[in-house]
Amino acid sequence: MRIIIDCRYILDPPNGQFGGISEYADGLIRALLDLKTGNEFVLFFSEKYSGDLAVARGGVEVVRVPVKRGSFFFNHFVFPRLVRLSRPDIFFAPQGQLPLGWRGRAVVTVHDLAIFGHPEWFPGGFSRWFSTKLVVPWSLRRAEKIIAVSEATKKDLMRLFKIPDEKIFIVYPDVVVSEHVENGSSDYFLCLGTIEPRKNFLLAAQAIKILREKFPEAKLLIVGGRGWKFAETIKEFDPEFVEELGFVSCEQKFSLLAKAQALVFPSLYEGFGLPPLEAMKLGVPVITTRAGALPEVCGEAARYVSINDPVELARAMEEMFAENLRAGYIERGLKQAEKFSWKKSAEEILNILSL
C-alpha cells in the first residue's frame, strides 16, 4: 500500500519545543516507519523543515513543498495535485484537515473539538471562521475514516457533527520523554501548555498563593507558548511566586518536569492531554481535572480537582508534600503510563489505513 502523509505543519519548533499536534505526528510517523511492514510511505514536508524525519530511505519517499501560508489556492488546490502525482492509495492527515481539492481516499486524526463546543475560549476572525465553518466540517464528511485520540473526542464527533459510530476509530497516542533527566522533588509546581483561557492557569496561580500561607517557599512555574489573552492573564500572576518561562527546549521541559513537586494541569477541556502522560512517564504526580479526556489519560493515578475552586486545588498541592501520598501517585502514574505505546498506536492506525 502506498500511503501519503501530510507533514507540512511539522516545522522546526521554537527552541526545540513541539506543539501537541506536531508532537503527535512526529511520534506516530516514527512508529509507523519502524514497523517495516512493506508499505510505501510518501511524506510531504514544508521546504523549511530540517528535522531528521525528512530523510528518504527504503520504502520512504520525501517530498518538499513551498510554504504558502495564507495561500488558499495553493494549499487547497495545487497541493492536492502534487499529492496525486505520487499515485497514493490513501492520504493520511494527522492534523485533521484535508485540502478542499482532495478527491481521493483519506483518513484524518481529530484531536480536539473544543472550539466547536466552547467558542468563547478562542479568538475570532476569518481564520477561525474558515476552519470551523468550512474546512473541518468538510474534512470530516470527506474522510473515509476518522481516528479520534480519545473516547471524549469520539463522543464530540458524534454529538457535534452527527458522525456515525462505525466511521470513528479510537487510537490513543503516546509520548516520548527524555531518558537523561534526574528525578527529585523541589518546592515548585509546574504548569505545561499554552497560556490561554481554557488551560485555566489562573486557577493554579490563585491556588499557589493560598498554599504559600503554609508553605512559603512554594512556587509555580509555567512553561509554554503565549496564546490568546496572554497579556491580561499574566497581569493576575504575582511574579514573586509565579514565574512564566515561555517556550523551553524539550530537554529543559523534561528536566523541569522531573524535578517538580507535581504537574498542575487544571484544564477546562482536553481532547487528550499530553502533559499529564509525560508527567506520569517521568514519575511525577499529576493534579488535574475531569474535563474531557483527562480521566481516560490519567485513570486512577491523578489527584482530581474541580475546575473553579482554588482552595481545593491548594489542598491537593499541599498533599504532595506528604511523602507517602506523593509516592502513591507516582507509583500509580507509572503503571497507568504503561498502557500507552506508540508501537501499538502505529499498528492500529496502519490497520485502519488498510481497511
Automatic annotation (TrEMBL):
Top-level taxon of the source organism: Bacteria
Residue span, Glycosyltransferase subfamily 4-like N-terminal domain: 18-173
CDD domains named in the record: GT4_MtfB-like
UniProt entry keywords in alphabetical sequence: Glycosyltransferase, Transferase
One annotated GO molecular function: glycosyltransferase activity
Database matches in InterPro entries: Glyco_trans_4-like_N
Name of the protein described by the UniProt record: Mannosyltransferase B-like protein
Organism: Candidatus Uhrbacteria bacterium GW2011_GWF2_44_350
Top-level taxonomy: Bacteria, Candidatus Uhriibacteriota
